[in-house]
What does this fold into?
Amino acid sequence: MRKKQTIKKSFLYRRSITSCTILLCLFLTQCKKDPFYKSQKKVENVQQPIIKEEAIKKWFGEKPLAKLVSLDWSKAKQGVVNGKNVVRVPLLNFANTNKGNANKKVLSSGKNSTNDIVNSNYYPSHAPEMFFIQNNNTGKLRAYLLNFVPINKSNEFGENGTWSGKLYEWNLSGDTVHVQDILQSKLKERYAVKIGDAPDDNNGIVKAVERISSNQMVGTGTKVSGIFGWLVDVLGDFVGWIGHLFGLSDYVPSTSPNAPPGMQWRLKDINWAWFTDNDTGTGEGGGGSLYTGAGNRIYLDYIPGVKYDGTNGEPTTYDEYPSPGGGPSTPVTISVNDMVAQYVMEKLVVTKPSVAQLLYNRFDIARAITDYIDSHSMTQEEIDFLNWVLDYLVINTNFDIGQEGAFDKLYIFKNLSLNSNQTNYINTISLAETNAIREIIKQDENINENKTMGEAFVEILEQEASNSPSTEGPKMTALINKIKSTISLGVVETAKLMRKVYLNASNIKVVKNNTSTINTLTINPIRSAVSSMVNFDAQTMGWGDLFNIWLFELGSYTNMVSGSPAIFISGNTNIQSGNNMSNPQTNALKNLTSVVSLRNTIKSKLNLGTLSTGNKETLYYTYNVNEYYGSLTQQNIAKIFLGSFNTEAYVLNKSGNSATILFVVNNVSGWESATRFIKAEGGNIGIIDDKARGAGLNLGGNFGQDIQWTETITW
Amino acid sequence: MRRHTIYNVIWIGLVVLLGSCGVSSYSDETVEVSDSLSYQGLTGTYVFKPTKIQAERLQIPMDSAVTLKLENKPFKNSKGTQFGGTYYISKMIFIKSPNDNGFYSNGWSVIYSKDTLNNHNANLISFEQEIKNGNDMSFEIHRNKKDNSLRILGFTSDPKYEVINIVDFKKIK
It folds into this structure.
């Protein structure tokens, strides 16, 4: 389920330009005997907290991952570099704290064995550090976690200002870590690494990391929204790996009793004493909020390059790591599971105790919801959906949230009224079939129509699956009634609805690979119901009847027009004359523009003597956008149905100033021509291919019309 | 929102063309001449350069240029609704399946068709020819929207009775 993140180059470029420049400068200066405060850059001594606590608190609030980081605020330093406020804080070492020294203020829960815990990339002499960097002008705060991992911890690890190794930089948000490869204090290479597929062992993790060359680095700043970037396979994936880089996590063999099945990397439970109001510490500064729990005086005590003794206001020589005193003595443990639950509750504004309990008790659900949140744009509609999902799961505890297409199935449950058999059926179907049904619901904004359609399809599919398709169910009846009522609204509305039915049935057909079943259970009952509404008498039928005969493939015709079964309409029919039609003058075929023009041509040529018995005149009529709007205004169903067509006129006999003319209109109706205008719009969307009548789904197969009548023309 | 827009487009297409039909690009460039034309305006030289599809349909090279000249040879029918003259065409393409597309000459005529019922008046031009299985086209006279110059558009159909624009003569002088 985990998705590889798309690289957004422009985004990274903007982000990295700022952060890399600042951090590279910071690091390079740091690599010379911690020159943060010996830099040639302008460094101002500051005697007050230069970054307000509220700003840092806000940043922590926006970065759930930051809560994984236990900072040693007792060793915090601050300064102003090139107009930017900088606070740097080293990290605590979990591994050390877990070795039973209960007196240390830096604690993890300590409930697991410590024998297999090795934070191999944590070097106390140069601990990983958080850098908080605030723009003085805008107040915008950024934070980066840096760790230097030496090639050899005993050699060129800062002695005499010489460094060889890798400096890792991470913003605690994205899935990309920036790396600067340093050899003897010189930058050899700069690149980024992204997490790849889930590895299966320690080496695999390293291999799984997609290395991105320096050329591509500007494009690697993909940010992963919210919690997704670090809770994707929390214990075996990116966080574990990245935590390892930064001395945060432990490697636990999958065989370890402490490891969740199939997972190797494990983040230790976090001591939140330093970051939460739950601090019950008794020391100086204890009981405060956020990092103030580590001692309220940190900003007063530690200033780059100087020591402020906090009593007389006089700066003195810098004392690197004096004890700040205070801090909590009792660790508070918050598990990763709880964090995921809290994340979901915060995002969805969960207030129901039953839902909260579900999230705390069911990590699989909380995590699945988290994944969904981070992979979707959280509109109000999505939030409502997820809240519905949680309500549903409170009741339906057996629903497998981990199954493929789980949320699609839930979407179906939310939007369709299904009985228990149909619900069970949806729980068993493939992802492809699930998607096909979901698309019926989502295809457009006509919610009720889509619901009717979706329920009918689910009904017949479930019936088919349970080998009980003999009777028409209530949902299918509802769809048929909908179609019948739509037919009474006219051909345009009917076309809209039936196009949807056809496309949905086509999608289901593809998934089920069973055309005859779809025809038998869905299309044919519709055709049968519509058939009773159609007048098949060629003499008295109207354009709506012709339309329905085409669309629903009704009737049986042996006559052919251009290779397609065709109806033969001859003589003084209603189609020709407009009799018994609404708007008869307009809808009479003999009155259509092309026929009138052809009649005028014939009359003129007969008058001139250039047309004789046996001669033929043809006129092709093109139906364009202007004609379309005109036909809508006129309610000219004849034009709408025929579209462009050709009319031929034969001079059967000529006598004096009179002649008998046979008019012949041939036309073939089909899906492709019905949807052709979409091509003209350049979209090529929604065009349905022509098909033969009786082939595939029994809707809209090519159907011809051969309409003839004679007229006596005088001049 | 985008989906909604797309469906609007779809429905325009669907309801327009339930039957067989087609739309050519000329419809965006020209407007059919609805007022009565005169000899003076119509006679002259026209040139047609086929598109790939038109060339294939007419079985002529795509890079060919067909010249059509309409000459004045006054005549009128008794009711004055028709007039015409002689046309000369460098390749005879006014036929369904050309078996001789060399130089050809015959009569042309224009009928001014008034259709009050549909409020549609048109100048329908015909090109006489004596070739067997011949003329299977109908012609309309249009004006370019840009420069008002005349164009003679010919239409025919494919086997499915889809109407297509098969020739497009543009007046050059």
User: Anything to note?
Assistant: Chain A touches chain B through 62 residues (CB under 8 Å). Residues 46 and 525 of chain A are 83 Å apart (CA to CA).
